[in-house]
Structure formats: structure tokens, C-alpha cells
Write a structure and sequence with these properties.
It is a single chain. This protein has 498 residues and is an alpha/beta fold. It folds into three domains: 27-129 and 140-178, no CATH class; 189-303 and 336-386, Rossmann fold (3-Layer(aba) Sandwich), CATH 3.40.50; 392-472, no CATH class. It is built from 18 helices and 15 strands. The chain is elongated. Mean pLDDT is 82; it is low at 1-7 and 303-323. Bound molecules: adenosine-5'-triphosphate (ATP). Adenosine-5'-triphosphate binds at residues 204-206, 245-251, 366, 425-426, 429.
């Protein structure tokens, strides 16, 4: 309250002096130069003496190229909530695909803010410049700004911690309000669509303990900026998701992005020409993003690449021949993607990968054993998450999502069948899709029981078939060994007779 009265008093004094300055600006041209200079100097001094407030102006456009200032837009977003409470005239902007409104104060409004018990004021304003062009019409150029006013005794607090707080908060609100995007690369360029995948951790069918572990890991990562800075490590984390097709690897990535409010950069490695292009693409990924490389084992010959090169060299040495001209196919293969394992490793943890921070990189694979250990060692892929066939616990999540039921007389049977046979969550989910309108849980669960029994039968037949093949192979091997032994025996008896 004291601040408010003090503020009001000084505002009045300030505005008297400001009026004087305005009149002075109009008439100063009629004063001789020397007198003008002196008067100006003393009025400025008098102004700062009686007016103990400091003002900082943040212009909307800055720099030679008049780019929109990031600080201005962060302040605008930061002030949004106090503006909607205090300002009488507001401007509205629609964000998130026309789904939510962001309000900001209109020109020449003022709102108060508090920080650590200190009151300060933000005012919005605009300068209108009229420029006469060659054409008949005048063009008006509006330059908006925010002016922050605070008592000079709080200079340190406001210039340091308060402004940091405003910029950080503004940025965070902006990220929360933004429409998230899914980027894909065509060669070395990213293009995007709106990211609207509905997957959440709640709807993800995996065991509760595993789910909690992943959520905790992600939240801890996203809140550890200071920790990473303190230990001198780039603020990034690698996840390797592995498991058979249809176990929810892509669904988990979408749930991760939705949980953290990050954009997704789906990197198609096979369309990246070489390591330089790969580096360019990754440098463009901003903070708060998940870079995804799906089916990493298919994207690159990560196991055979070094071996093949070695074999080629050996072949060259052995033959002592000149290198054969390449076929058209070989030429095309060479051109298609020359991203190497070392190029990829460098992109995951090379020096530049620290630029920006707060990035997650996710590799997915159906065959973890195919990957080069260097690629998935801890530090590169910090967390390895296995997604596997549907357990009864995971089934219950699906039943709750799809059928909105927690119990059913068929649950015990399904639990036994899931233990005896392997079915992916994707296949289980397919059985739970509505078969009638309205959906009937009995029909869906019976379909699932039937599917599981069939899968069990097929697995049994396959096992028997494999056992038969094995037995046949063993019989053939024994027969061959017996035949060879007999031949040897005969040879020996012939040489004995001689
Ligand atoms: N764990 C799961 N929880 C919920 N839904 C799942 C799960 N696994 C699979 N699904 C369902 O199955 C569909 C396919 O799953 P998803 O694409 O995530 O599997 P994937 O492991 O990435 O498969 P691929 O290896 O073939 O890419 C999803 O649309 C989702 O509806």
C-alpha cells in the first residue's frame, strides 16, 4: 500500500516533469544553442533527482533487421495473466489451433506486478512514425514497447533475478501454449505437421512399476538443468526402446512427448545423404524436443558397415587387381546414404550436441542384439526400455481403456492364456476394438479368448514342427556318420587282406 501511494505521488511528479519536457521539446529550437544544452542537462538531472524511479524499455523490434524481440514476446506472455486481471483494455490472440486464447494488455495500459515483496509497474506503449512515400498515401509505422518502472533502491533485484524470472516464466508459458509439431526430414530439410497424437502414459499398456520408472526418469531429466550444468554434461538423455513389433514403442514416444510437452523430430536416416547433412539436421533441432530414429537396425548397416569395408580392403589386397568399375546399382547405393556409425555416434554425443540442451534422443529397434554395442552403451543411450508381449497387467489397462471395465468373468481365463502364449498389445487391442454399436465387452473378450487359443495352438504346432525338423536333422547326421564309419571299416578290411 505504501508503495502504491509513493508510486502514485512520484508518478504525478514524474508526469509534471514529463509535461515540462514535452513543452521544452517544442520550444527549445527558439533558444540559443548554448543555453539549450545547459537547460537540457539540468532538467535531466532535476528529473532523476526528484523522480527516484528507474525505467527500462523493451522494444518489440530490435536489431538492424528489425527482428521481433524474444524478450518482448516473453514479457507479453508473462504479463498475460496480470493483464487479464488488471487492464481495462485487452488484446486477444488465438493459439493452439484456435483452441485457447492468450490475452495481453492493449496500448497505453499499465499493470502492477510483485516480486519478493517489491512492487513494480509495466506499461505498454507505442510510437507512431509517419513516413511519406513517393505515392500519395502516408504510411504509418507503429513501434510497440513495454516500459518497466521500479524504485531505484531495488535496482539489483529487478535487473537480475526479476528480469530472469520474467523471461523464463514467459518462455515456459509460451511453450505450454504452443501448438506442438511433428517434424520429419526430407533429405536435409525438416518439414512439419501439427502433432496431435492422443497417447498418454495413462492409456499405455505396460506394467505400473515400469511406467512409474519411465515417468520419474523423464520428469527428473526435464527439471535438471542446473544439475547438468553443475556436473558439466550436456543436458540431453538417450533412450533405447526395444521389443517385437506392436509392443508400443511408437506409442510410448508419443506419450513421452505429451508428458513433457516437447516437439517430435522423426529422423529418417536413410534419406540423409551423409554425416554433414545429419549434423546440419540435428543442429536445427531446438530445445524441448525428442529426436526419434525408428528401427535403427534397418536405417543403417550398423553391424556390417565396418566389416564390409574390411572385407573389401582384404579382397583388393588378395587379388592385387585394379578396382572394378561400379555397377549402376552400386553407384546408387553409394549415393543413397553414406551416414556412418561414427557419424551417428558423433551426432549423439559430439561437441555440438550440447548446443541448445533439453533434448531427448530415442532409438527404437526390434532386434537389440543386432546393434553395435558402441551405439547403445550407457552415456549414449542412458536408459534401455524393453517393451514386450502383453502381460495380464497390461491387458487390464487395455480393457479399461477400450471397454471401460475392471473385471469380467473371462479375466481369469485370459490371464492363464496370456501366461501360456505370446500376444502383442497391438494384437490384443485389435480384439478389443468395438465389433458392434454400442460396443459389447462380452463379444470383444470372447474374440480375444478365441485369438489367444488359436495363437497357443499355432505356437504348439510350430514347436512340434521344429522338434520334428531337429529330430530329422539329428537322424540324418547319425546316418551320415554311420555310413562314413562303415566306409572306413571296409577300407581297413581291404587293406588288411592285401
Ligand atoms: N503398450 C501399448 N499400450 C497401448 N497400446 C498399444 C501398446 N502397444 C501397442 N499398442 C497399440 O498398437 C498399435 C501399434 O503400436 P506401436 O506402433 O506403438 O508399436 P511399435 O512397437 O512401435 O511397432 P513397430 O515396431 O512395428 O513400429 C498402436 O496404435 C497402439 O494402439
Amino acid at each position: 500500500m505504501i508503495h502504491l501511494q509513493e508510486g502514485d505521488m512520484f508518478t504525478k511528479v514524474g508526469s509534471v516533469i514529463a509535461s515540462f519536457m514535452f513543452v521544452w521539446a517544442m520550444f527549445k529550437q527558439y533558444f540559443p544553442y548554448e543555453l539549450r544544452d545547459r537547460l537540457e542537462k539540468y532538467t535531466q538531472r532535476a528529473f532523476t533527482f526528484v523522480y527516484p524511479y528507474i525505467q527500462i524499455t523493451f522494444h518489440e523490434f530490435t536489431g538492424e533487421r528489425l527482428m521481433r524481440s524474444e524478450a518482448y514476446s516473453s514479457i507479453e506472455t508473462y504479463l498475460s495473466s496480470s493483464s487479464s486481471m488488471q487492464a481495462k483494455r485487452l488484446k486477444a490472440e488465438v493459439v493452439k489451433n484456435n483452441q485457447s486464447l492468450v490475452l495481453s494488455m492493449d496500448d497505453h495500459e499499465e499493470v502492477a506486478d510483485h516480486f519478493n515483496g517489491v512492487k513494480l509497474w509495466w506499461a505498454s506503449g507505442k510510437n507512431v512514425l509517419k513516413t511519406q512515400t513517393l505515392s500519395f498515401y502516408q504510411i504509418t509505422d507503429e513501434k510497440r514497447y513495454y516500459k518497466l518502472r521500479f524504485h531505484k533502491k531495488h535496482r539489483e533485484l529487478i535487473i537480475g533475478p526479476y528480469l530472469n524470472h520474467v523471461l523464463k516464466e514467459g518462455k515456459a508459458i509460451k511453450i505450454k501454449n504452443r501448438q506442438r509439431k511433428l517434424y520429419t526430414n526430407n533429405g536435409s530439410y525438416w518439414s512439419h505437421v501439427v502433432f496431435e497424437h492422443p497417447a498418454t502414459f495413462k492409456s499405455l499398456a505396460i506394467e505400473a512399476t515400469k511406467k512409474k520408472e519411465i515417468i520419474d526418469d523423464l520428469i527428473t531429466f526435464s527439471q535438471s538443468e542446473e544439475f547438468y550444468a553443475r556436473i558439466g554434461r550436456a543436458w540431453k538423455r538417450g533412450y533405447l526402446l526395444y521389443g517385437p513389433p506392436g509392443t508400443g514403442k511408437s506409442t510410448l514416444i508419443a506419450a513421452m512427448a505429451n508428458l513433457l510437452n516437447y516437439d517430435v523430430y522423426d529422423l529418417e536416416l536413410t534419406s540423409v545423404k551423409n554425416n554433414t547433412e545429419l549434423r546440419k539436421l540435428l543442429i536445427e533441432v531446438p530445445y524441448k524436443s525428442i529426436v526419434v530414429i525408428e528401427d535403427i537396425d534397418c536405417s543403417l548397416d550398423l553391424t556390417g558397415q565396418r566389416k564390409k569395408k574390411k572385407e573389401k580392403e582384404e579382397m583388393g589386397n588378395n587379388n592385387g587387381n585394379e578396382e572394378k568399375p561400379k555397377t549402376v546399382k552400386e553407384e546408387r547405393d553409394d549415393r543413397s546414404s553414406q551416414v556412418t556409425l561414427s557419424g551417428l555416434l558423433n551426432s549423439v554425443d559430439g561437441l555440438w550436441s550440447a548446443c541448445g540442451g533439453e533434448r531427448i534422443i530415442v532409438f527404437t529397434t526390434n532386434f537389440i542384439e543386432k546393434l553395435d554395442p558402441a551405439l547403445i552403451r550407457k552415456g549414449r543411450m542412458d536408459k534401455h526400455i524393453e517393451l514386450s508381449y502383453c502381460s495380464f497387467e497390461a491387458f487390464k489397462v487395455l480393457a479399461n481403456n477400450y471397454l471401460q471395465i475392471d473385471t469380467h468373468q473371462l479375466f481369469d481365463k485370459i490371464s492363464d492364456l496370456l501366461e501360456e502364449t505370446k500376444m502383442t498389445p497391438a494384437d490384443v487391442a485389435e480384439h478389443l476394438m468395438p465389433k458392434t454399436v454400442p460396443s459389447n465387452a462380452d463379444v470383444c473378450l470372447e474374440s480375444l479368448v478365441e485369438g489367444l487359443q488359436m495363437a497357443k495352438e499355432e505356437a504348439k504346432l510350430k514347436k512340434e514342427e521344429e522338434a520334428r525338423e531337429k529330430a530329422e536333422e539329428a537322424a540324418t547326421a547319425t546316418a551320415t556318420a554311420n555310413g562314413e564309419a562303415k566306409l572306413e571299416e571296409n577300407k581297413d578290411s581291404v587293406s588288411g587282406k592285401e
